């Protein structure tokens, strides 16, 4: 169950992305943060203690929402819009954290 629940604007165009290997349907205009938190309870794991994080400021200032492409590009979840075919991982390539 996701942390976010979509209440409106459900008629936007669907955008399929991949999150940690799972195919997920987002909507055009969603940020990665919205897309991920609509399907999961947390956005990523904290790099220091492995705790679940969901973002903090929602305005591209705190970097609590960092996620990565499968090729290692770092993205801010709160300010990056979904694009068809994006392949996202929620754990950084430099510091993999065991669950
Ligand atoms: S939630 Fe703070 S930078 Fe994205």
Q: Compute the number of structural domains.
A: 1
N/C terminus separation: 19 Å
The level of helicity is: under 10%
SSE ordering: EEHEEEEE
| Radius of gyration, whole Å | 13 Å
Portion in beta strands: 25-35%
What is the class in the CATH system? Alpha Beta
Small molecules (ligands, ions, cofactors) in the structure: FE2/S2 (inorganic) cluster
Characterization of this structure:
It is a single chain. This protein has 99 residues and is mostly beta strands. The chain has a single domain (14-89), classed as Roll (Ubiquitin-like (UB roll)), CATH 3.10.20.440. The protein contains one helix and seven strands, in the order ββαβββββ. The protein has one helix at residues 32-37, and strands spanning 14-19, 22-27, 44-45, 52-53, 66-69, 74-76, 87-89. The strands form two sheets. It has a five-stranded mixed sheet. The protein is globular. The model has no long low-confidence stretch (mean pLDDT 91). Bound molecules: FE2/S2 (inorganic) cluster. FE2/S2 (inorganic) cluster (FES) binds next to loops. FE2/S2 (inorganic) cluster binds at residues 55-58, 60-65, 76-78.
What would a concise description of this structure say?
By secondary structure, the protein is mainly beta. It has one helix at 32-37; strands at 14-19, 22-27, 44-45, 52-53, 66-69, 74-76, 87-89. It has one domain (14-89): Ubiquitin-like (UB roll), CATH 3.10.20.440.
């Amino acid at each position: 169950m996701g942390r976010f629940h979509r209440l409106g604007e459900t008629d936007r165009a669907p955008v399929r992305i991949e999150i940690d290997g799972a195919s997920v349907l987002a909507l055009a205009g969603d940020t990665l943060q919205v897309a991920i938190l609509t399907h999961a309870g947390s956005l990523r794991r904290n790099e220091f203690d492995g705790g679940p994080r969901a973002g903090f400021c929602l305005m591209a200032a705190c970097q609590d929402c960092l996620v990565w492409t499968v090729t290692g590009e770092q993205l801010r979840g709160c300010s990056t819009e979904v694009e068809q075919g994006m392949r996202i991982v929620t754990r950084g390539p430099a510091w993999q954290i065991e669950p």
